[in-house]
Amino acid sequence: MSTLAIVARQGGLGDRFSNAWAYVFTGAMIVLSLFPVYWVLTYSLKSKRDSLITPPLWLFDPTADHYIKLWGHETFKYAFLNSVIVTIIGLALSLAIAIPTAYAIVRMKVRGRNLVGVWLILAYMLPEFLFVIPMFSLYQWTGLYDTHVGLALMYQVHVLPLSIWLLSSFFREINPAIDEAARIEGASHWQILTRIYVPCTLPGIAATAVLNAIWIWNELAIALGLTFSKAQTITLGVTSFRGYAAFDWGAMTAASIVAIVPMLLFAIVAQKHIVKGLTLGAVKG
Predict the structure, then answer these.
(1) What is the distance, to the nearest Å, from the Cα of residue 108 to the centroid of all Cα atoms in its chain?
(2) What is this structure's pTM?
């Protein structure tokens, strides 16, 4: 066997060995990341007697008692509905403001555009609860405390910078010559935005919407500070099964699974748009 053939054969073995380790490592990371979800799911399906057995049972008779109890709990049902309402309002507000703002930053001569970019980064990096303290009194004075609209407005402090930053990067991928041609034909900025930019960057807008919806749905700190009973979200609803020095672990784990499912389904349905949006402009011909 020639020296070249030996080297090629060794190289092929090395590549296969590297690929095998890559698969093993990826599989291990997937198992580690999904194991907490699996543990919570199995706990939510165990009876109270089975959940107290040590060491934990891996094989057991599943029961839906905790889920039945969950939907009979008024606080949790209202918390779930509140999260749906707040997510829809917050998502609509963020896109309605971010889309024209991103277009103005990218295609119009806006004074201080660089400072706006710095503000976007700083606002996104600041902790959410930092804004709750000064807004608490203002919300009580204006009547926005413990309301869906007030909570959705407060969420814009976080989701707007991310939305504007992402949409600006998507809009920059559109050739400026298209703008010039449209303006020569007499199109206004609003017509260019709605008829050219939005359709061309629809996957990016969808990806931004999914990321915003997931963040709003899972947020806890702002909801904890600016709600009391009427607008409590699902993240607070999960904690409603905690009593004084006692936890209803079965109902709490069932509530956690119910809280995960809507955004999981939303992400699966929009997966194609997420991939297209996040890779928009990444490869240029």
Answers:
(1) 30
(2) 0.81
